[in-house]
């Protein structure tokens, strides 16, 4: 199996090294194509007005001055053009990608791009807690990742589907199992604006999350992570809502 590994945190991210190690437990044919710099939150964007700069870091490892989606396209169509990958793995992201994160995440977008190109694709993320980004428990993803990926591949991924995997903020031995979960939904009242002033008195702003109690819905990826379970969520490229499609078709036919 030929595996293409990418991410949105950049070529030097510890999560990428973790995913490389996971991939090498599955295959000895692993290629890495990742962004030169952190591309978190760029979603499924493409570089249409800037050239893509390609740099070979080492054997079978490349950096692209572009987005995660650019990296997958370059990997599949250019670097591995004569022998495309059988699997795209994206991550391991620094922080969970659950609920609405799915729409913003460059990690998820890379897996989406792989799926668009007809390649089985899985996105992987490691949650962190109150200790912040400096205390991520990468060993959780490292230990459990290979068997989760193996089970997903054994079960099968249908065309047009990608799989979103999130590892909880705990040590490997504290994981309470695997939950096949739906995409959750946060309380949007938690989204806040942090207004500040620079040294010259000019205002600037940070997007932030307010600290408040929030109970995630049962069966959701948010609930799984809160309960120290690994969440596995299949996502569809086709965003069409069938019930509304039928309702609108009936309305416009009148």
TrEMBL record:
<comment type="similarity">
    <text>Belongs to the SurE nucleotidase family.</text>
</comment>
<dbReference type="GO" id="GO:0046872">
    <property type="term" value="F:metal ion binding"/>
</dbReference>
<feature type="binding site">
    <location>
        <position position="9"/>
    </location>
    <ligand>
        <name>a divalent metal cation</name>
    </ligand>
</feature>
<dbReference type="InterPro" id="IPR030048">
    <property type="entry name" value="SurE"/>
</dbReference>
<dbReference type="GO" id="GO:0008254">
    <property type="term" value="F:3'-nucleotidase activity"/>
</dbReference>
<keyword id="KW-0479">Metal-binding</keyword>
<dbReference type="InterPro" id="IPR002828">
    <property type="entry name" value="SurE-like_Pase/nucleotidase"/>
</dbReference>
<dbReference type="Pfam" id="PF01975">
    <property type="entry name" value="SurE"/>
</dbReference>
<dbReference type="GO" id="GO:0008253">
    <property type="term" value="F:5'-nucleotidase activity"/>
</dbReference>
<feature type="binding site">
    <location>
        <position position="8"/>
    </location>
    <ligand>
        <name>a divalent metal cation</name>
    </ligand>
</feature>
<keyword id="KW-0378">Hydrolase</keyword>
<dbReference type="GO" id="GO:0004309">
    <property type="term" value="F:exopolyphosphatase activity"/>
</dbReference>
<protein>
    <recommendedName>
        <fullName>5'-nucleotidase SurE</fullName>
        <ecNumber>3.1.3.5</ecNumber>
    </recommendedName>
</protein>
<dbReference type="GO" id="GO:0005737">
    <property type="term" value="C:cytoplasm"/>
</dbReference>
<feature type="domain" description="Survival protein SurE-like phosphatase/nucleotidase">
    <location>
        <begin position="3"/>
        <end position="187"/>
    </location>
</feature>
<keyword id="KW-0963">Cytoplasm</keyword>
<feature type="binding site">
    <location>
        <position position="93"/>
    </location>
    <ligand>
        <name>a divalent metal cation</name>
    </ligand>
</feature>
<dbReference type="InterPro" id="IPR036523">
    <property type="entry name" value="SurE-like_sf"/>
</dbReference>
<comment type="function">
    <text>Nucleotidase that shows phosphatase activity on nucleoside 5'-monophosphates.</text>
</comment>
<dbReference type="GO" id="GO:0000166">
    <property type="term" value="F:nucleotide binding"/>
</dbReference>
<feature type="binding site">
    <location>
        <position position="40"/>
    </location>
    <ligand>
        <name>a divalent metal cation</name>
    </ligand>
</feature>
<keyword id="KW-0547">Nucleotide-binding</keyword>
